[in-house]
Amino acid sequence: MSRPAMILMYCCTAFIAAALTHPALAAAINNPGFEDGWSGWMEIDKDGKSVAISGDSHEGEASAKITSQAGSFAQAITVKPRTDYVLSAWVTGAGIVGVKIGKQLVFERQGKTRSWKEVQVAFNSGDHQQVAVFTQYNGRKGLFDDFSIIEAKGEQNDASISLGDGGLSPDFPPGRNFELNDWYLNTPEDGGDGRAKRIPERELVNGYQNKPYFYTAEDGGMVFRTTIGGKKTSKNTRYTRTELREMLRRGDTSIRTKSEAGEPNKNNWVFSTAPGRAQKLAGGIDGTLKATLAVNHVTTTGSARDIGQVIIGQIHAGHDEPARLHYRKLPGNERGSIYVAHEISGGDDEWYEILGSRSDTAKDPLDGIALNEKFSYEIAAKGHELKVTISKEGVILGSITIDMTNSGYDVENDYMYFKAGVYTQNDSGDPSDYDQATFYFLENKH
């Protein structure tokens, strides 16, 4: 399962549900100096060695230590609605201290320091009665101690950084803003064997980014760019991509990417119409892929058949593609069209237009999506039903439902996985021409 930011995963419903009940007139931090170990705190230690209680302290005998991006800790606290607060913590080394208020993140960064420095985060609780205090790694080891929170009187510090509803930081690599440990990435860079470069799950989680193909934008979004002249993933592929491939194994390399026998394994999933044995072998049954994004650029050179066309989301099978979500904007048009290809197993594509037309000579679609305009898609597969929905700010712009009863995917020796990013559909344009999209939300569920 993915969420728009790894911080949000750490500071979400579970922490709020575990919040202590405090007097209505005061907020308080439980075990603020870690004298009782992790009591009151929720620690995240993904590799088993990134957070610990330390004997080095600002006051008392203990502090909390974070040594890598795999570590974090947080605590839910009770606050009064519509009240100004200042959160304080003492930090040495480096670290991030912040507060999650609903979907908003407010935080301060402490850079490298050899002495203990007080970090203050000013925030307003809005309509919320509970918020989550969180910490994050900031490039090097950090020690945290003596947390406190008070109601602000008079002018408050306005230097705290607010990330808004998206919860995305421009200072974090994609693997910090998004949970990417169930994806690997292909880019059109040379991987050393003449094929496209592949970046595994662990590297993404540990902060991989490489401009201009995959990096964090100034607004915190996750940027994907692919050039026509880049390297391809295989000799049978016509087009280049910078695209995530779903990996249900979540970094467990004892599970292969796919079974050599062609049957499902725990890294991939199947439709609920697949035979019982296939369902038992698979890592999931049915699935939904959700994304919010903006397409920033499409190719403007090449043949009429290719120009301006890019795939932004897929369900991929062993050899076929039950769903390919296309965005296409032609030169001279202000907006782009969105349509879906459904490939019959071992057969041809069926095309379904959602917004505008997929024609090589399409007129400007009045209901289309412009470059740099944010929108959302949902690809949902349940049994024989495949539904694709396009929306903007919660309003559905269009949807289609495809009956897969006769599509040939209810077999024992096939499997599915999601893909998201940019997969150009242009192999005739200038080698430097490119497609680019920025993602602000990405979630896969089974």
Summarize the structure in words.
Strands 1, 2, 3, 4, 5, 6, 7, 8 and 9 form a nine-stranded antiparallel sheet that branches. The model is unreliable at about 1-25 and about 155-160 (pLDDT under 50). This protein starts with 5 loop residues before the first helix and ends with a strand. It has two domains: about 5-160, Galactose-binding domain-like (Jelly Rolls); about 175-445, Jelly Rolls (Sandwich), CATH 2.60.120.200. It is built from five helices and 27 strands. The chain is mainly β and about 450 residues long.
From the structure above, extract its key features.
single chain; 446 residues; mainly beta; Jelly Rolls; 2 domains; nine-stranded antiparallel β-sheet; 5 helices; 27 strands; 6% helix; disordered N terminus
Low-confidence stretches: 1-26, 155-159
Shape: globular
CA-based gyration radius: 24 Å
- In which range does the helix fraction lie? under 10%
Q: In this structure, how is the largest beta sheet organized?
A: 9 strands, antiparallel
Q: Which structural class fits the helix and strand makeup?
A: mainly beta
Number of domains: 2
What's the CATH C level of the largest domain?
Answer: Mainly Beta
> What is the architecture of the largest domain at the second tier of CATH?
Sandwich
